Amino acid sequence: MPGFDGALGDSDEEEQVERCEDCGFAWESVPPIEIGDRARHGALRIAELMQMDAVTDRPEPNRWSALEYAAHVRDVLLNLRDRIVVALVEDDPDFKPLYRDQRVDLGLYAGDTPASVRQDLDTASDLFCRTFAVLSTDQLARPCQYAYPTLTTRSVLWMARQVVHEVEHHLGDIEENAAELA
Questions:
Q1: Residue 74 and residue 164: Cα distance in Å, rounded?
Q2: Where are the alpha helices (DSSP H) in 26-151?
Q3: Measured between alpha carbons, how far is 51 from 69 in angstroms, rounded to an integer?
Q4: Which of 159, 113, 119 is nearest to 140 (CA)?
Q5: Alpha-carbon distance 113 to 70, whole Å?
Q6: Are the C-beta atoms of residues 172 and 23 closer than 8 Å to each other?
Q7: What b/e readout covers 46-67, taking b as 16+ CB neighbours within 10 angstroms?
């Protein structure tokens, strides 16, 4: 997963804007009002791409298949939804890692089919969006400890923006796979 590149923002104060070094995603650029729609739209687009040819093929040995990326997005939607709940209940919690690479390496996605992942993405994105839709401004500001890119204090709002990043970033990965395997 890409990390913070330290890119500077456009303000007079030269504030640092956190950006993904691979896809350019800037967390602060996502208004809260767009989070649900962008997460839902991206997840549905990934689900549509599960109908393409070669969905289980890896274009390179060290690059995941489209199905593996889609299953990862499903798990992120579910995991971060649960982390939001924990952050609303506990004061300044920290979280166990998702173990994204280990899920693939352990073969935990081997039983996933394109059809099951399509359905799971629909359910997971719906659950995330319904949870996010009811959060107040105070709840969005609740702090938690998050280990991306290094352990630091984040907010529930940042975690919701992270969902958008994960969905859109891996949608790009899946589209790149499709182009490389075409």
A1: 12
A2: 32-49, 66-89, 100-105, 114-133, 137-140
A3: 14
A4: 159
A5: 10
A6: yes
A7: bbebbeeeebeebbeeeebbbb
Q: How far apart are the first and last CA of the chain?
A: 25
The structure tokens listed for 25 are 């995603």
112, 67 contact by CB (below 8 A): yes
Side chain identity, residue 86:
V
3-state secondary structure of 71: helix
Asked whether 168 and 25 are in contact (CB, 8 A), the reply is yes
Lookup: tokens for 66? 């489209």
Amino acid letter, 131: T
Gyration radius (Cα) of the chain, Å: 16
- The 10s digit of each residue's pLDDT in 86-141 is 999 999 999 999 999 999 999 999 999 999 999 999 999 999 999 999 999 999 99
Task: Give domain limits for the chain.
Answer: 34-181
Q: What global pTM score does this model have? A: 0.90
Are 79 and 98 contacting, i.e. CB atoms less than 8 angstroms apart?
yes
Cα(135)–Cα(156) distance, rounded to whole angstroms?
9
* CATH superfamily name and code, 34-181: dinb family like domain (1.20.120.450)
What are 113's two structure tokens? 């089919």
Contact 1, 100 (CB under 8 A): yes
Q: What are phi and psi of 26, to 5 degrees?
A: -115, 115
